[in-house]
Amino acid sequence: MSAAVDRTVLDELHATYNRRRFVHPDPLEFLYDYDDPVDREIVGLVASSLAYGRVAQILRSVSSVLDRMPSPSVFLQCASRGSLRKTFADFKHRFTTGEELAAMLYGAKHAIERYGSLRECFAANLDEDDDTVLPALSALVDEVRSAAGGQLGSLLPSPRGGSACKRLNLFLRWMVRSDEVDPGGWHDVPASKLIVPLDTHMHRICLGLRLTERKQATMRAAIEITTAFRKISPEDPVRYDFALTRLGIRDDTDLGEFLVRCRSLLAAGAT
User: Which of 8, 142, 238, 271 is deepest in the core (most CB within 10 A)?
Assistant: First the structure.
């Protein structure tokens, strides 16, 4: 299988859409209000974990959580399991209950107390020889889930289960990459190890670009797609993620036209 995409067309798309003015409506925008990386990573965990369903509901739910924790790091430092349950008792986001959200935040508090921050918890389990962030991400999730006492439901899935873990990989993209869109903060984690945040929309795009033939948006598909992007952008394989996901969801984009152009450029280059 040969990919139907080259760097030229990806760079053009990136130059057009990888801009902060195209972020709204996206839960990523909540991170821009927090300069302290320790606050930002907590906000990122909340915003990415709730990033499923209709975008309007996502934004309302994330806003509802953050309104109750004005300074996230101080809030968690002072919180107990009981106070978290009380604070979020009436919270509901689709399948996610206030009990599950409180459990995740308590797990995050535990990881921060043990390591100093979520970044340090993650970095402690990231080996220089690891091809991807997957081992460190699995360890971070294990740490949070263990302290949460198994009350997370589907809020924080384990990468060990084969899921593409789109929301977790989205969280890492936000925290590791630093450009006009992604605010960064985890500067010691190499962007080269990131995995593409794969959902059904991105999977459809990557099928069209022939970056995978896998029919399901699984972790195996995400790694296969990431490997293909790494050949184009070795130091930053998720560089094009934000721009590509604008295709088909913005009124000024057309996924079909983009795919046709990619194939035409490749055909022209082969003659």
Answer: 238
